[in-house]
Amino acid sequence: MLDVLRRHASGWVAKVLLSLLVISFAIWGIADVFRGFGTRDLAQVGSVKIGIDMFRQLYQERLQQLSRQLGRGITPDQARALGVDRQLLGELISETTLDEKARELRLAIANEALIAHIHANPAFRGANGNFDPNRFYDALRSLGFSEQRFVDAERRLILRQQLARALGGDLVAPEVLREAVRRFEGEERAVEFVALDRAQAKDVPAPSPSEIDKFYEDNKTAFRAPEYRKVVMLALTPETLANEIEISDADLRKAYEQRRDRMGTPERREIEQIVFPNVAEAEAASKRITEGAKFEDIVAERGLKQGDVSLGLVAKREIDTTVADAIFALPQGQVSKPITGRFGTVISRVLRVEPGKEPAFADIAPTLRKEIATGQARNLILDQHDKIEDERAGGARLAEVATKLRLKSINVDAVDRSGRGPDGKPIEGVPSLTDVVAGAFSTQIGVETDPIDAGGGYVWYEVLGITPSRDRPLDEVRDRVDARWRDEQTAKRLSERADAIRSKLDAGESLEAAAPGLKVEKREKIQRGKEVDGLDRKTLAAIFQTARGKGGIGVAADGVGRVIFRVTSVDVPTGAADPRLVSELATGLQDDLLVQYVIHLQNQLGVTINEAGLRTITGGAGN
Predict the structure, then answer these.
(1) Three-state SS across 359-380?
(2) Which ranges constitute the DSSP H helices of 507-610?
């Protein structure tokens, strides 16, 4: 949601300030940065402290975001290996550093300007394109923000942007750098290649028992059974609650009558309309038409063109409501009497009627029932949330809560860190499964956990059991071990043959002569970062590391096959640099400048970090 709220902010300043990814690592090079201090504080920048509770909340939100991006749960160990804790803390320290400098310089933004800035955010606009307070407060509730917290955050962001713009808003990349990058990105290559697949390895003999035993022992970890967790969940979402809500036939029929125009296709009419400056002229023209004059004669006499009178094919709701009823009551081909509307008195003619289509009640009833129930369920979410939390506060387990409140719990006997069961298939029917699994693998049996935000609802979870990871015995995985052994032997054979072909290419032989019996393919205008049919990314990377006229080897996408290629041409572009490239280079230099500036400010202000507090939150033995 924060991304949506700030998506309208553009330019290098917003990009830098919304992430500060590079800066976030700069603090870890500051000498003597870790010092023990108050247990409620995690870090201090100058005189400003960053609280442990705030960091813990933001850290959990970051792990949930990362889990969604990866499509699987992320463990505390994996998070630390990725540096998530350091990145987040670095961002907070960098933002605090800029906030401190802004206060020192007495930068400010008027309340009126801040309000205008928030009102201009597209995320808060209603159907009419204007600021919608309801959408604003709905967005804040989904974020868990108070109005004051959001306003304060926006104020600080704007002040940071002022600093960043003053620092390097007009910086441009030097010509020599633009040229070097332009040549790198625009370079095109042509290759010829042959592919070796499993068929070229011929039949790999079956492994002997001793070979299988040794291969299994050498690669035992590759065949381990993952850790599984038994989890009970309670999902409270509009969709799950909707299933329990009864909608009466009377309410369903009422909703149908209210929405039938929107659900069906409305009647449309092709209309011509003459607007008169006053009622008298309109009545005079209408009398002439009654006496035999044609509608076209009136149009011509008034000096009007077809485009001046034609409204086109329109629905009733698309025209002036004060004249729509009269026009849509006319038979096709008939001219109306004078009608006084908001824009004057008109005479209209209906050229064509395109009948509307209304959905039958029986056809639309199931969809309507679901929509109404889901809408009512949204209003019940918070009330049910409080009831569940009250029961948990009283010591009830999730299964007991579900039974007492007549909610349906979800029981999963075994799920691994990737959200899959023992059969290797993803677990289905669980909202926000990735976040739930990540949470389940970061807690222990019976521990009460906070609910997961499920996009308008919540999911509670509780770990009931843990099946530790284990070494599978050879008999249990013999087929997989055999297949893996054959793959490695096949890859070894193909690699040896590929080496022999490349040696011949480097000796000056043609690809046809060096690889007899294999189909030689050619590709031209290959560019970095662009997909090419028949060549995977690793092979493409190898092509751009190989000199013209030389041969190279790439590994096929299956990890077994080989691709032997020769670079036949290298074309370096000429001409002016792409404006997009120039802009990106300038952004990169501006980023670097801001990084150096923040590091300088951090050294001036002084940064300290509570190492013990960080370990407590992330579960690490050290950082």
Answers:
(1) CCHHHHHHHHHHHHHHHHHHHH
(2) 511-514, 537-543, 579-605
Q: In terms of Cα–Cα distance, which of 524, 525, 523, 528 is closest to 183? A: 528
Judge if pTM exceeds 0.85. Answer: no
CA angle at 451 for the pair 83 and 462, rounded to the nearest 5°:
95
Comparing CA positions, the residue from 97, 98, 239 lying closest to residue 163 is: 98
CB 230 within 8 A of CB 464: yes
Residue 348 has, within 13 A of its CA and on its CB side, a CA count of 25
Handedness of CA 140, 141, 145, 147 (dihedral sign): positive
Span 397-447, pLDDT tens digits? 999 999 998 888 999 999 999 999 998 899 988 888 888 998 999 889 988
- Looking at per-residue confidence, does 586 or 283 come out higher? 283
Contact 20, 14 (CB under 8 A): no
CA distances from 480 to 35, 204, 315, 548 (A): 51, 16, 65, 42
| Cα distances (angstroms) measured from residue 620 to each of 1, 158, 326, 490, 617 | 30, 35, 76, 42, 8
Helix (H, G, I), strand (E, B) or coil at 476: helix
Tokens, residue 225:
């059974």
Name, in order, each residue with C-beta under 8 angstroms of 103's C-beta and a sequence gap of 6 or more. none
The gap between the terminal CA atoms of the chain, to the nearest Å, is: 31
**Dist. CA 9–CA 3, nearest whole Å:** 10
Q: Are 548 and 542 in contact (CB under 8 A)?
A: no
Cα separation of 555 and 268, whole Å? Answer: 61
**Which position has the token pair 């100058």?**
46
3-state helix, strand, coil in the chain (%, to 5): 50, 20, 30
Distance of CA 510 to the CA centre of its chain: 48
